Amino acid sequence: MKTLKLTTAVIAAGLSSASIAWNDTPTVTWVGDSGAVAAPGCSFREQTNGVIERGSGLVSPSSWIATTPATIEVRVRGHSSLRMTSDNVLRTANGNPTEITATVDYTGADGGATRSGLNNEAGGTQFIRSNAMGVTGAVTASAELITFTVSGSALLTAGGLTGDEGAQAAMDLLANDTDYKINHTVTCSQ
Question: For residues 143 and 37, which has the higher predicted lDDT (pLDDT)?
Answer without folding.
Answer: 143
